[in-house]
Amino acid sequence: MELKTKINAEDGKHDLTITREFDLPLELLFKAFAEPELVEQWMGTKVLKLESKKHGSYQFETTDPKGKKHGFSGVFHDFIPNQQITRTFEMANTPFGVQLEITKFEKLTGNTSKVNMHTIYESVAQRDEVLKLPFAWGINMAHNRIEELLNSLK
Amino acid sequence: MNLRRDVFQAIADPTRRAILLLVATQTMTAGAIAANFNTARPTVSKHLQILTECELLKQEQDGREIYYHINAKNMKAIADFIEPFRRMWDDRFNKLEEIMKKIDNNSHKL
After folding, report:
1. Residue B37: what are its φ and ψ, rounded to 5°?
2. In this predicted model, what pLDDT tens digit does every residue of A33-76 receive, in sequence order?
3. Do A28 and B104 touch (CB under 8 A)?
């Protein structure tokens, strides 16, 4: 299947954009960002709090395969239904700092829509560290799989 | 036993990452590479073998010596560290689309 999500992260910059087109009407796409039980499902995280309104705040908690809990939180600077969400985002107990996310929603046709997430980091180094996280997880997973395989051969 | 090796396995090890950095700037013999580490020579040889098997390093025989140099094409594959980040968001958004389509269908039935 074709990967539809595009990332634009230029070298030496402290921001990036994530864009994606959906086979969903704009209202449904936006709903997925606004309602706690929907966010829980597609983000794969527990939603402790989600006040989807201007000056509201949110708190997520994810449990990794080892049972360790990771907290994520931020506040909504702006929340305009079907148009834009401006919020901060921070991972608790990490050196990655706070990031500013400006997410714009756009209607393409009656049944298709588009999302554009512009994320701004405190520094180039912090952006690159966050970008590398899933890469590092990939290495760990590859490592674990190899360990499992080797153990099964013993 | 022939384990299929991939580049992620290769760079999961700090010694192998250090070897790649060394060889990135110049072609070197196994002995010259091993001289940079406190690790036993056979251990370094094992690392070189893994890096060669997953095609991050190329071997070249010159007389009695084997020289190692970097395989630029495959190094580019691991340099593209953005790809897993993109895939993570793509997975999330695929899920979002799937969930919302179901909700849409249900609401039409009501």
Report:
1. -125, 150
2. 999 999 999 998 999 999 999 999 999 999 887 888 999 999 99
3. yes
Per-residue exposure over B25-48, b if at least 16 CB sit within 10 Å of its own CB, e if not: eeebebeebbeeeeeeeeebeebb
Show the tokens assigned to B98. Answer: 């799937």
Phi-psi region of A82 (alpha: psi -120 to 50; beta: other; left: phi over 0): left
Query: What percent of chain A has pLDDT above 70?
Result: 85
Whole-model pTM: value is: 0.66
Nearest to A41 among B11, B84, B99 (CB): B99
Q: What's the complex ipTM? A: 0.84
Which of B9, B12, B88 is facing A134, going by the closest CB pair? B88
Q: What is the count of structural domains for chain A?
A: 1
CA dihedral A13, A18, A19, A25 (to 10 degrees): -140
Decide if B68 contacts B27 (C-beta within 8 A): yes
In a domain, A28, yes or no: yes
**How would CATH label the architecture of B1-79?**
Orthogonal Bundle (1.10)
Question: What is the Cα A50 distance to its own chain's centre?
Answer: 15
